[in-house]
Amino acid sequence: MKNSILKLVLVLSLPMIYYIAFSGFKDKAEIINRPISIEDAPEIKSFTNLIFTDTYFGSSLHGHNPNDPRSIENNIANFRDSLHFNSIHVYGYGNLGGGFYDPISDYSGYINGLITTVNNAGLSGFYGRNKIEQLSYGQRLIYEIGPANFSRVNSGFSYDSIMSNTYGTDSGRTVLHATPYPNEDYNSSGWLCKSIYENLQHGDLIDFTQADTMEWHMKPVMRIRQSDFNVSSTIPVVAIVVKNYLGDIIDSVVLRVKHFSNSNGSYSGNYIENYLFDNNKDSLRISGSRELTNGLSHGMTDRWPGWKDSCKVDFKVWWFGNVEVWFDKMMVDDRFGDMLLNKDTSISFPNERRITEEAQAFTDNINSGHGSFFIDELCISQLPCVKRV
């Protein structure tokens, strides 16, 4: 009985099996036999297919040896024909292609020749240049202030705690205005602002292209009344108190009335960020070291998951209650950020000139479409420098 039922099911299923099998072949045959038109061809896409080259191994600063097995010159014939790349990417963080302090005459001929060689091989070139990249990797952190109930400004880079009854505006700026005068705006001495938010940026890139372990330059942006200024006055205005990763106080700098002076011994009552100390000493500079006990990053370990909950770096501002002050923000630059962004042109201009000269040395080649410069792997603290470059 079971065998009879099985045979009956098989017989009834044959038409369905036949339809499924042969309808598939029919569809495939129609597709194969159908004429192909231009509409069926996919749109041609152009894309950059890069080979990454570590540095300029054929450079004149490396013995001028294009036969070095690592050099572009020794491999360029294979990049396009055998490996089918259409572009070359050359990192410039080393000094082989021209270091930050090297004279352009030492390497411009070689670099221009390399750009031409790459172009003649039918390849696009993307070139890292030390003089351009180095200052682009400079950092500037800007800690702004906001009202006590909304201190998260500037994407989080701000002070969490501010002195009460000081929040306001001045000259189009959002500021803290503290006054010692006995009226309705009177303030007592105390912490003008403290507890910066997003404070880990000063030590999280120890082994990268940034200069976290080098010096950091504190630049409080503020002003006092011109009538309160005296080039000989030692009256204290504010103190900048620095805490490191562990929360230890590692520095305290008192800014006095006379420190608001310019090089001519005068002050106009404007907002400034550079202060003139005795003997031109940069007293607002602090180390970023992990090893030194007075370093911003002292106490950090290589175990990064705990950093965000343990970092206590702070740049607190204490107001002495003696002199009326308008405080805008605290800017903190690393070494290369200061070299590029310092308002003192004797510091910034020579470094800006390096960038200009580097670009001008290769203008003809780059403008002819033979290549381009690049900067990569950036973080938010580097944007002010990148914009300036």
Notable features of this structure?
15 strands; six-stranded antiparallel sheet; elongated; five-stranded antiparallel sheet; about 400 residues; 9 helices; alpha+beta
Describe this entry's structure for a reader.
With 389 residues, the chain is an alpha+beta fold. It contains nine helices and 15 strands. The strands form three sheets. Strands 4, 6, 7, 9, 12 and 14 form a six-stranded antiparallel β-sheet that branches. It is elongated and about 80 Å long. The model is unreliable at 5-32 (pLDDT under 50).
What is the tally of beta strands? 15
**Beta-strand content bin:** 15-25%
Largest sheet, if any? 6 strands, antiparallel
Poorly predicted ranges (pLDDT <50, ≥5 residues)? 5-32
Mean of pLDDT: 84
What is the structural class?
A: alpha+beta
List the helices and strands and how they pair.
Layout: H1 2-33, E1 50-53, H2 76-81, E2 87-90, H3 108-120, E3 124-127, H4 130-136, E4 140-144, E5 158-162, E6 167-170, E7 173-178, E8 190-197, E9 215-224, E10 236-243, E11 249-256, E12 285-287, H5 307-310, E13 314-319, E14 325-334, H6 335-341, H7 345-361, H8 363-370, E15 372-373, H9 383-388
Parallel strand pairs: 1-2, 2-3, 3-15
Antiparallel strand pairs: 4-14, 5-8, 6-7, 7-14, 8-13, 9-12, 9-14, 10-11, 10-13
